[in-house]
């Protein structure tokens, strides 16, 4: 999942590189941010349209998945019927919290290696386009 730099780097959370120093790192950051912004905006719209999504879902995983899909389907119906988006709440706080690093440096190194694979991909793209 693409997230901003306020989150800890995890194998399942791809963060931008703080203070990029190479062209590859800069291209990676630009791509990461460009891809992340529309998704974050949509999450905000869904959470305003369906407050249950911002309050925390206390359901079994399968039921929560069904609820989220239902919200997405209802949102698409609302869009198709030209329903206006819910007004933005300026007091809305970040719902995500950083998870504690329970395995120390080994986990941290694995997470950096995972992001490094993306950097190699972007480096190859740059080389192909030159």
Automatic annotation (TrEMBL):
Any Pfam family hit: DDE_Tnp_4
Keyword Acetylation attributed: no
InterPro entries: HARBI1_dom
Regions of compositional bias (Acidic residues) in chain numbering: 86-101
Keyword Metal-binding: yes
Residue ranges of domain DDE Tnp4 in the record: 2-76
Swiss-Prot/TrEMBL cofactor(s): a divalent metal cation
Region (Disordered), start-end ranges: 83-102
GO terms of molecular function: metal ion binding
Domain of life: Eukaryota
Record's keyword terms, sorted: Metal-binding
Protein name per UniProt: DDE Tnp4 domain-containing protein
Organism: Acanthoscelides obtectus (Bean weevil)
């Amino acid at each position: 999942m693409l997230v901003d730099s306020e989150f800890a780097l995890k194998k399942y959370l791809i963060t931008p590189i703080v203070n990029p120093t190479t062209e590859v790192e800069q291209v990676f950051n630009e791509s990461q941010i460009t891809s992340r912004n529309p998704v974050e905006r949509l999450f905000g719209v869904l959470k305003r349209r369906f407050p249950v999504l911002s309050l925390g879902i206390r359901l079994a995983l399968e039921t929560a998945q069904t609820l989220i899909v239902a919200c997405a389907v209802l949102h698409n119906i609302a869009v198709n019927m030209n329903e206006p988006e819910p007004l933005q709440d300026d007091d809305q706080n970040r719902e995500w919290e950083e998870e504690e690093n329970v395995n120390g440096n080994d986990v941290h190194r694995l997470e950096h290696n995972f992001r490094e694979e993306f950097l190699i991909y972007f480096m190859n793209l740059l080389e192909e386009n030159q």
